[in-house]
Specification:
Blueprint (H helix, E strand, L loop, with lengths): L2 E5 L8 H14 L4 E5 L5 H5 L11 H6 L8 E2 L5 E4 L5 H9 L7 H12 L4 E5 L6 H9 L2 E7 L4 H17 L7 E8 L5 H14 L12 H5 L7 H4 L4 H22 L17
Parallel strand pairs: 1-5, 1-6, 2-4, 2-5, 6-7
Antiparallel strand pairs: 3-4
Helix pairs in contact: 1-11, 5-6
The structure holds adenosine-5'-triphosphate and magnesium ion.
């Protein structure tokens, strides 16, 4: 089955979409087949992968009337990265899904046949910056959650909110197998503050934090206007080097987990006392 990883943080602008498109591209370069699922009505992952958002070409029709989802999978600017685009109508899906029975598991049901088809090794979900229905549906459908976190002072607070939500998804039964894949620190610049934040997050969350820290670079901001992940747009820039290293680390962790009995080797979870 495909491994579904939701890239989530309810805070806006922390590097979710940049992480989604670059992780997808790096995994593809390492020989994996990847499907990106853009769940954010802003459609930044869609345009960042060189695809123009179009009404009707998203998960929206499938989410509200269970139509066939294969129709909306498209190719992207990156080889071996496919995409289910987002569209602005997805914003309305929040309200429509909320009215449906078992509204938490709509996305999980829609994704089920794609996961079982085993075409994609990874399904990477770009979540919107909110704690709404689309994000909770992503968490209910995912195997794991990857949390990008900006190297700035209030980042920790945001992290405890998402960690708390993951904990509730697990203990409340909505998704008992969900775990935090890891925390990736983004937009690092060599300042005392950034160093302190990284150190603080590491001391709190230990091995959950990836060794690679993604540096801040103007290249990362330029790449989306060319419809490319920065690893394709400027492969030798430091930010790309960061994403290549991070992608390799991500895959290593995945492979180590797969080679062990997952039941006894879930990544460490933050202690409940740390949760918001
Ligand atoms: N490493 C980086 N260096 C410099 N700029 C970056 C970096 N990563 C992301 N950015 C820029 O920061 C902005 C926010 O990044 P991104 O869109 O990935 O965040 P997000 O969490 O998906 O935002 P949203 O919550 O709005 O969906 C974008 O303009 C992006 O190009
Ligand atoms: Mg985004």
């Amino acid at each position: 089955m495909s491994h579904v990883v939701a890239v989530a943080n309810q805070k806006g602008g922390v590097g979710k979409t940049t992480t989604v498109v670059n992780l997808a591209a790096v995994l593809a370069s390492l020989g994996k087949t990847v499907l990106v699922l853009d769940l954010d009505p802003q459609a930044n992952a869609t345009s960042g992968l060189g695809v123009e958002p179009k009404a009707g070409v998203s998960l929206y029709p499938a989410l509200i009337d269970s139509s066939v989802v294969d129709d909306v999978i498209v190719g992207t600017s990156v080889e071996n990265v496919n995409l289910i685009p987002a569209e602005v109508n997805l914003a309305g899906a929040e309200i429509e899904i909320a009215r449906m029975p078992d509204h938490l598991h709509g996305l999980a049901k829609v994704l089920e046949p794609i996961r079982h088809a085993k075409v994609f090794d990874f399904i990477v979900v770009d979540c919107p910056p909110s704690l709404g229905i689309l994000m909770t549906n992503a968490l209910a459908a995912a195997d794991s959650v990857l949390v990008p976190m900006q190297c700035e002072y209030y980042a920790m607070e945001g992290l405890s909110v998402i960690a708390g939500l993951v904990e509730r998804m697990r203990t409340g039964g909505a998704n008992p197998k969900l775990f935090i894949e890891g925390i990736v620190m983004t937009m690092y610049s060599r300042t005392k503050l950034a160093d302190e934040v990284v150190e603080q997050v590491r001391s709190h969350y230990g091995d959950l934090v990836y060794g690679t820290v993604i540096p801040r670079s103007v290249r990362a901001g330029e790449a989306p206007s060319f419809g490319l992940p920065v690893v394709a747009y400027a492969p030798s820039s430091p930010v790309s080097e960061g994403y290549f290293n991070f992608g390799a680390e991500f895959l290593d962790r995945f492979n180590i987990r797969a080679s062990l009995d997952r039941k006894v080797d879930l990544p460490p979870q933050p202690a409940s006392s740390n949760l918001a």
